[in-house]
Write a structure and sequence with these properties.
By secondary structure, the chain is mainly α. It has 2 domains: 185 residues, no CATH class; 154 residues, no CATH class. The protein is flat.
Length: 342
């Protein structure tokens, strides 16, 4: 059974949306790393699509920002020109989010009216649209946490925002793969489906690592230790926490940093084991390619993680590291899908 040629347009549409989500993940990383996320203190879903166009409007927006905790405690040195630079990234981030909504909903409506979306596909694509809308609401919920008292967003809300973005992207990717490789399109491999059960905990482990990556960003734990493989001369967090009273694995920056590193090693070991065992047990060509991609993506991501901390969270390296997590999750899902189809 080959892919339905009538759904070729739907497949292209989903792939374009997936690409746009990839772009917003990158811009979101830049927004966070440049300290731009709290520059827009208003949430204007419709009118906010346009940046300030007059000097009076820029003055109004800047005045509102000057009343925010970030300006008063961190950026009180800023001029209007300085503010405009950070404002751009947050505005651009929100603009891409709006464009994704339009790029999804308009074609969805056209495909629906033309009868291209039938049965479960109609519902599944609508669920993707709802998830995207929730992502916008969650983004504002995250920003609000940094507009009161402390000029820093909650790392829990940041993790939820990033996780939902990855979830929406994964959902769209899975929809595309279902259309690109429908059931019974590939030769059956008796060893593939049992091995697929090992991919599920691996995907979960990658997901947990992504959450702790967001914790690293939100708590600024990535800036604590610019050495590897040690952490400023230590390998265990005990000595680093001797004077700490709050030793929470969810909140303490030292423990978050340590656990993020440790989970990274776990992902690397798991990826290598999956590749070595899968080479002997899996014959399906697409699944074998996927296992190799998982191993390569994991190795690249570990290297990027090391460079990120050693270079003290340098902008380009850190953004590529975030995209590396996105790529690793995507190829893991690609492999899982291939194993299930085989």
């Amino acid at each position: 059974m080959q892919p339905d040629p009538r759904l070729r347009g739907v497949r292209i549409w989903l792939l374009v949306v997936f690409g746009m989500i990839t772009a917003i993940v990158a811009v979101g990383g830049i927004t966070r790393l440049t300290g731009s996320g709290l520059s827009m203190v208003e949430w204007r879903p419709l009118m906010g699509a346009l940046p300030p166009l007059t000097e009076a409007e820029w003055t109004r927006v800047f005045t509102k920002y000057q009343a925010s905790p970030q300006y008063q405690h961190v950026n009180d040195w800023m001029t209007l020109a300085d503010f405009q630079r950070i404002f751009f990234w947050e505005w651009f981030h929100r603009l891409i989010g709006r464009l994704i909504g339009v790029a999804f909903f308009v074609p969805w409506l056209v495909f629906l009216l033309r009868g291209r979306l039938q049965g479960r596909l109609r519902l599944r694509t609508f669920v993707a649209f709802v998830l995207g809308g929730l992502q916008g609401l969650l983004g504002w919920f995250m920003v609000k946490s940094g507009l009161v008292d402390i000029p820093q967003v909650s790392h829990f809300r940041l993790a939820a925002h990033l996780s939902l973005a990855f979830t929406v992207a994964s959902y769209v990717l899975w929809l595309w793969m279902d259309l690109r490789w429908p059931a019974n399109t590939e030769p059956k491999d008796p060893g593939a489906r049992p091995f697929a059960r090992w991919l599920v905990p691996f995907v979960a482990l990658v997901g947990l690592q992504i959450v702790y990556g967001a914790f690293m960003a939100g708590s600024r734990a990535g800036y604590l230790f610019a050495t590897w493989p040690d952490m400023n001369g230590h390998y265990l967090p005990g000595a680093l926490l001797s004077a700490a009273s709050d030793a929470s694995w969810l909140s303490h920056p030292v423990l978050i940093h340590f656990l993020h590193r440790t989970l990274g090693y776990g992902v690397a070991v798991a990826a290598l084991a999956l590749f070595l065992v899968g080479r002997r047990r899996v014959a399906a060509p697409r699944a074998r390619r996927g296992l190799l991609l998982v191993l390569v993506a994991t190795g690249a991501q570990v290297l990027l993680g090391i460079l990120t901390v050693v270079l003290k969270v340098e902008l380009v390296t850190a953004v590529v590291h975030q995209l590396g997590a996105f790529a690793l999750l995507s190829v893991a899902l690609f492999t899982l899908h291939a194993l299930r189809r085989a």
